[in-house]
């Protein structure tokens, strides 16, 4: 297999941000607001002083990076002689940070690298910076090739996140008195006990379409307060609620996050999870002078992101390693710039 690396620096963007996830796909989601309180009794719910935070809180997150855009020539007769197929060389990582008492310890960290392409004859790309495992992505589905590859990359990242979440409790040895917080929607991890999805941004305001007066309640929440629990879903179902983290004056939705948990449990258990989130997550809210995404980017998640990005390796070194690997496969040597 021959492959070439596009000289366009991937740090300037690739037009491949297709991580829509659940949020962008559910504008017509069904909403049942009467899980905890009937609609005419909805009001902000204050933290319950009888609830105590868990002995350990585990935060799950993942990062991805396109190291290079590439072109693969696998010699396939289907694409014609001298033709090439688009590819992505990408690194991604996922892990968990376990916060117990005064300690914060990373566990279940996984780093992977992939060559994603629709070229059926693609083979692994080996560089001094690591091996990019060839993974054939079926073409089609009405998507542009670049978007198709980006979605495949997001799928690979989601898979290692699910694996990290599943291994976290065993490696951390937290027992039953813990809470697992997934950065983003809970999809793929609904089966895990005591797990919350933590959604920092709001592409869709789920209450606005069907219950605008309840949507307006979100803006009235004081720090630490939440909405009552409601049931949300289309092809999937989850219990969910909005909560405001500690924050200074700002926009009506400043510091508001959406939490979700599995709908397979009884409503009373989901309400208990909501109460537990109120006494647990505000303790980890970030400050604006330390994090531009404060307070939603919780300190453990921000720290885990930095750790994972370091584990991906230096982007410049890896890019040059890929250029050299591409040069080694070329029939006609070409100059490889070294900066």
Structural overview:
The protein has helices at residues 145-172, 206-210, 212-218, 267-280, 299-312, 315-329; strands spanning 2-5, 30-32, 56-73, 85-100, 103-117, 125-127, 130-136, 178-183, 195-199, 230-233, 237-244, 256-262. The chain is of the alpha+beta class and 339 residues long. It has one domain (2-8, 22-329). Strands 1, 2, 3, 4, 5, 6, 7, 8, 9, 10, 11 and 12 form a 12-stranded mixed sheet that branches. A hairpin with a 2-residue loop joins β6 (125-127) and β7 (130-136). The longest helix has 28 residues, at 145-172. The chain is elongated, with a radius of gyration of 23 Å. The protein starts with a strand and ends in a 10-residue tail after the last helix. Residues 12-21 and 332-339 have low confidence and may be disordered.
Q: Which word captures the global form?
A: elongated
Q: Helical residue percent? A: 10-25%
Q: What's the end-to-end separation, in Å?
A: 27 Å
For this structure, the quaternary state is: single chain
Structural class: alpha+beta
Radius of gyration: 23 Å
| Main beta-sheet annotation | 12 strands, mixed
Mean pLDDT: 87
Protein name: NurA domain-containing protein
Domain NurA: 174-290
Region (Disordered): 1-23
Organism: Pseudonocardia sulfidoxydans NBRC 16205
């Amino acid at each position: 297999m021959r492959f070439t690396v596009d000289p366009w620096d991937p740090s300037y963007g690739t037009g491949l941000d297709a991580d829509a996830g659940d949020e962008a796909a559910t504008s017509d989601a069904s909403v049942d607001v009467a899980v905890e309180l009937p609609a005419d009794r909805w009001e902000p719910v204050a933290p319950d002083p009888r609830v105590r935070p868990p002995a350990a809180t585990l935060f799950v997150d993942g990062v991805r990076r396109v190291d290079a855009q590439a072109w693969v020539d696998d010699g396939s007769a289907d694409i014609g002689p001298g033709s090439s197929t688009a590819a992505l060389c990408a690194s991604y990582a996922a892990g968990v940070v376990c916060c117990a008492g005064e300690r914060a310890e990373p566990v279940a960290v996984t780093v992977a690298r992939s060559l994603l392409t629709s070229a059926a004859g693609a083979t692994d790309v080996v560089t001094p910076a690591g091996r990019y495992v060839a993974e054939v992505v079926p073409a089609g589905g009405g998507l542009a090739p670049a978007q198709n590859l980006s979605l495949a990359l997001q799928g690979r990242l989601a898979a290692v996140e699910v694996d990290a979440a599943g291994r976290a409790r065993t490696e951390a040895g937290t027992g039953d008195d813990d809470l697992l917080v997934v950065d983003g929607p809970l999809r793929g991890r609904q089966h895990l006990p005591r797990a919350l999805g933590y959604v920092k941004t709001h592409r869709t305001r789920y209450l606005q379409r069907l219950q605008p007066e309840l949507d307006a309640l979100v803006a009235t929440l004081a720090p630490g307060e939440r909405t009552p629990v409601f049931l949300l879903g289309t092809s999937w179902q989850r219990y969910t609620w909005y909560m405001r983290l500690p924050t200074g004056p700002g926009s009506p939705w400043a510091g508001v996050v959406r939490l979700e948990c599995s709908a397979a449990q009884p409503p009373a258990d989901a309400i208990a999870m909501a109460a537990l989130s109120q006494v647990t997550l505000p303790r980890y809210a970030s400050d604006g002078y330390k994090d531009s995404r404060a307070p939603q980017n919780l300190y453990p998640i921000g720290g885990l992101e930095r750790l994972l990005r370091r584990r991906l390796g230096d982007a410049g070194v890896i890019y040059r390693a890929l250029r050299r690997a591409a040069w080694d496969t070329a029939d006609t040597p070409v100059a490889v710039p070294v900066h």
